[in-house]
Automatic annotation (TrEMBL):
Pathway: Isoprenoid biosynthesis; isopentenyl diphosphate biosynthesis via DXP pathway; isopentenyl diphosphate from 1-deoxy-D-xylulose 5-phosphate: step 3/6. Its EC number is 2.7.1.148. One of its GO terms (molecular function) is ATP binding. This is 4-diphosphocytidyl-2-C-methyl-D-erythritol kinase. Residues 213-284 form the GHMP kinase C-terminal domain. InterPro entries: GHMP_kinase_C_dom, GHMP_kinase_C_sf, GHMP_kinase_N_dom, IspE, Ribosomal_Su5_D2-typ_SF, Ribsml_uS5_D2-typ_fold_subgr. Signal peptide: none annotated. Belongs to the GHMP kinase family. IspE subfamily. It catalyses: 4-CDP-2-C-methyl-D-erythritol + ATP = 4-CDP-2-C-methyl-D-erythritol 2-phosphate + ADP + H(+). The lineage of its organism: Bacteria, Pseudomonadati, Pseudomonadota, Alphaproteobacteria, Sphingomonadales. GO terms for biological process: isopentenyl diphosphate biosynthetic process, methylerythritol 4-phosphate pathway; terpenoid biosynthetic process. HAMAP family: IspE. It comes from Sphingobium ummariense RL-3.
Length: 297
């Protein structure tokens, strides 16, 4: 981002900007148990985070305004106004704190939008983390998680951005360690179709297929599911092609869809096999988005 001194005259506080990474979220398993009366669904999910994601930078200002600029590969088309979850998060935290200071923020958007890897949720969570630092605010973690949930079901889990078991609508958070996940090579592939979350849940067939048992990696592979995979495929059939392409690559231990799609992931033992798979998929589908990364430890 440009240095603050080179920027608008309204900026009073001049300091080096600080940055938070909005780590991409991946649901290694997502079991949908039931639809609640309020329309949300009770979930059991194992969340992990990639080592990479969007980047949110900023500095505090004394003018009380929240200013946001956006660029990056997926920045075009994403507004920087009230609808952006970064602005919404900032305004919510500002209101809660009665904060008179503002912030000048810049989002570098690397993650595709409405893609099942929680880009918007991760950005909102990164904004809360960044502003707590910028404003040197003391906010109880439970309070911050409540504000996060008001911004979206995935935002509380994204606040922590660690491997965790998530239940309820997204508010039940329990950090968990499954041997062999940390730093495991991971490939994310999105076929370029935006899939909004609400309509995917709406076509779920309401069949409870059972609890998520995932204490070990092999249980996650054998007994884990993503119950939104078929509903999402019904809306975006190309997701089947992505899964088939991933599953045909050498060294894949697990390939599944994340969240409500359309992004799918593959886990490998070996980074060289992940890189070979990335090269193959990019060659066969140059229009698909790929991210070769690892599970954040
Ligand atoms: C599919 C997941 O990404 C899995 O991690 C999340 O459950 C969705 O999280 P999110 O994108 O933060 O979702 P929200 O912005 O809270 O909700 C978007 C829409 O998804 C549906 N929704 C979301 C979460 C949930 N537990 N049940 C739902 O039915 C609702 O129709 C809601 O209106
Ligand atoms: N900063 C942002 N980045 C991405 N999307 C945003 C942002 N702000 C608002 N949105 C809106 O939020 C919606 C969901 O975006 P997001 O990328 O989080 O969905 P998702 O990846 O499908 O999430 P999930 O994994 O929870 O299904 C989009 O319709 C988008 O327009």
């Amino acid at each position: 981002m440009p240095h603050p001194e080179a920027d608008s005259a309204s900026v009073v506080t001049v300091a080096d900007p600080i940055t938070e990474i909005a780590y991409a979220k991946v649901n290694l398993a997502l079991h949908v148990r039931r639809r609640r009366d309020d329309g949300f669904h009770e979930l059991e999910s194992l969340f992990v985070f990639a080592e990479d994601g969007d980047r949110l930078s900023g500095f505090a200002t004394d003018d009380g305004m929240i200013a946001l600029s956006v660029d990056g590969p997926f920045g075009a088309g994403l507004g920087n106004g009230a609808g952006n979850l970064v602005s919404e998060a900032a305004i919510k935290l500002q209101a809660f704190l009665g904060e008179r200071r503002g912030a000048k923020l810049h989002l570098f958007k690397s993650l595709p939008v409405a893609s099942g890897i929680g880009g918007g949720s991760a950005d909102a969570a990164a904004a809360l983390r960044l502003l707590v630092r910028l404003w040197d605010a003391s906010v109880d973690q439970i309070v911050l998680e409540r504000l996060a949930l008001e911004l979206g079901s995935d935002v509380p889990a994204c606040l922590r951005s660690v491997t965790q078991r998530v239940t309820g609508r997204g508010e039940g958070l329990e950090a968990c360690a499954i041997e062999g996940l940390s730093e495991r090579p991971m490939l994310l592939v999105n076929p370029g179709v935006a899939v909004p979350t609400g309509p995917v849940f709406a076509v779920w067939d309401r069949k409870d297929r059972g609890a998520l048992v995932a204490e070990r990696f092999d249980e996650l592979v054998e007994m884990g599911r993503n119950d939104l995979e078929n509903p999402a495929i019904a809306l975006a059939p190309v997701i089947s092609d992505v899964l088939a392409r991933l599953r045909s690559q050498a060294g894949v231990r697990l390939a599944r869809m994340s969240g409500s799609g359309a992004t799918c992931f593959a886990l490998f033992d070996d980074a060289a096999q992940r890189d070979a798979a990335t090269t193959n998929i990019r060659a066969a589908h140059p229009d698909w988005w790929t991210m070769a990364t690892r599970i954040k430890g």
